[in-house]
Amino acid sequence: MSSTPQSFVLPSPAEAMLRDAIAAALQAEPHARAELFERLLAEIEDSMRERPGERPWRHEVFTGTDGSRIFRGGTGRSIVIDPAGAMWRARSYEDFDTTYTITEKGCSIDTLTPRYAEMRPFAVTESPPPPHR
């Protein structure tokens, strides 16, 4: 019997696709990053929808109050592309000032204001982040 600990959590194929999307966006011209990244994330979501046996993968896209594009995943993490094209790692709740619209039918995000001082920037020369385990 092996004494090496093993994880029984199977990684999603979406993790590798997300790393590739981040790498592609970092290599793109800053003015083109948000549009490219949005398209690549939509392709990941479509690909995972075609794999019903896999864990679902979804994201939401918002425009920040400063014109940034905010890509929120289902794991409490976000990626922000600011108006100048810089990419930032963010926590979906802690790194934004958020206002909500509350109705009888539910609650939804109204505005998101990025707090860049709380975020970590992606460096254009860095490797994409490893999969979260």
Summary?
With 133 residues, the protein is of the alpha+beta class.
Features:
133 residues, alpha+beta, five-stranded antiparallel beta sheet, two-stranded antiparallel sheet, 7 strands, globular
Low-confidence stretches: none
Q: Report the sheet with the most strands, covering strand number, pairing sense and barrel closure.
A: 5 strands, antiparallel
Helicity level, as a percent range?
A: 10-25%
Task: Calculate the mean pLDDT score and round it.
Answer: 88
Number of helical segments?
Answer: 2
The overall strand count is 7
The percent range for strand residues is 25-35%
Distance between the termini: 24 Å
Give, in spatial order, the strands making up the sheet with the most strands: 1-2-3-4-7
The dominant shape is globular
* Content-based structural category: alpha+beta
Number of domains: 1
- The sequence of SSEs as H and E is HHEEEEEEE
What is the gyration radius calculated from CA atoms?
16 Å
